[in-house]
């Protein structure tokens, strides 16, 4: 059962999606939900079917006091590394909140201070707290929709299906067609590859 609050203050939950992908952005969401918010389906987005995540997206957007969603693109990921890009995405999503949070709860174990707002990192927070679970759903659904758009441009990688994750099919397509401007050049695209011939 998800808990509604960690601190009892005006609390924002934040989470990211797409950290382990070979292509596309890392996407983060932050949201503040009313303390009374309840939803039977809501859980860590990884535990939900795509259908349930899509069903939840407008419910969360409508019921949230405020929310923000941000993409950090491959060029930036390659420059600052994926951990820093994930934290930056979460911080930029928090900047979009129209109600300033008094406390932030972050999924995972790494974060950097945001303004002067106290925060807590919570391992598997997306399966413990409503606002983190909500942020995980918004981040994942927004990123998935974006990857489906990119699929139209480069259908051979089947991003519509794999969303940029390192599936066998995605790696085969990289072997055959090489990398695109949407691939993260700093990631090991293929298991046996040591250098990228760019």
Automatic annotation (TrEMBL):
Residue ranges of coiled coil: none
Keywords: Cytoplasm, Endonuclease, Hydrolase, Manganese, Metal-binding, Nuclease
CDD domains: RNase_HII_bacteria_HII_like
Binding site for a divalent metal cation: 15-16, 107
Reaction(s) catalysed (UniProt annotation): Endonucleolytic cleavage to 5'-phosphomonoester
Gene Ontology annotations of biological process type: DNA replication, removal of RNA primer; mismatch repair
Entry-linked Pfam families: RNase_HII
MF terms in GO: manganese ion binding; RNA binding; RNA-DNA hybrid ribonuclease activity
InterPro entries, per the entry: RNase_HII, RNase_HII/HIII, RNase_HII/HIII_dom, RNaseH-like_sf, RNaseH_sf
Entry GO CC: cytoplasm; ribonuclease H2 complex
Subcellular location: Cytoplasm
Cofactor details (free text): Manganese or magnesium. Binds 1 divalent metal ion per monomer in the absence of substrate. May bind a second metal ion after substrate binding.
Gene3D superfamilies with a match to the protein in the record: Ribonuclease H-like superfamily/Ribonuclease H (3.30.420.10)
Cofactor(s) needed by this chain: Mg(2+); Mn(2+)
NCBIfam families registered for this protein in UniProt: PRK00015.1-3
Family of the protein in this entry: Belongs to the RNase HII family.
Its job: Endonuclease that specifically degrades the RNA of RNA-DNA hybrids.
Protein name listed in UniProt: Ribonuclease HII
Organism: Maribacter algarum
């Amino acid at each position: 059962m998800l808990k509604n609050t960690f601190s009892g203050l005006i609390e924002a939950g934040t989470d990211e999606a797409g950290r382990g992908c070979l292509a596309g952005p890392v996407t983060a969401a932050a949201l503040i939900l009313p303390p009374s918010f309840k939803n039977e389906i809501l859980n860590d987005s990884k535990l939900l079917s795509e259908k349930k995540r899509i069903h939840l997206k407008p419910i969360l957007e409508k019921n949230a006091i405020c929310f923000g969603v941000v993409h950090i693109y491959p060029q930036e990921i390659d420059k600052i590394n994926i951990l820093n890009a994930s934290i930056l995405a979460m911080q930029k999503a928090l900047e979009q909140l129209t109600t300033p949070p008094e406390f932030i709860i972050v999924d995972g174990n790494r974060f950097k201070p945001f303004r002067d707002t106290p925060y807590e990192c919570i391992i598997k927070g997306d399966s413990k707290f409503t606002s983190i679970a909500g942020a995980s759903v918004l981040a994942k659904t927004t990123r998935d929709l974006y990857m489906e758009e990119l699929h139209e441009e480069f259908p051979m990688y089947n991003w519509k299906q794999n969303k940029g994750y390192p599936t066998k099919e995605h790696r085969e397509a990289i072997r055959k067609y090489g990398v695109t401007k949407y691939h993260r050049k700093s990631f090991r695209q293929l298991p046996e590859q040591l250098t990228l011939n760019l």
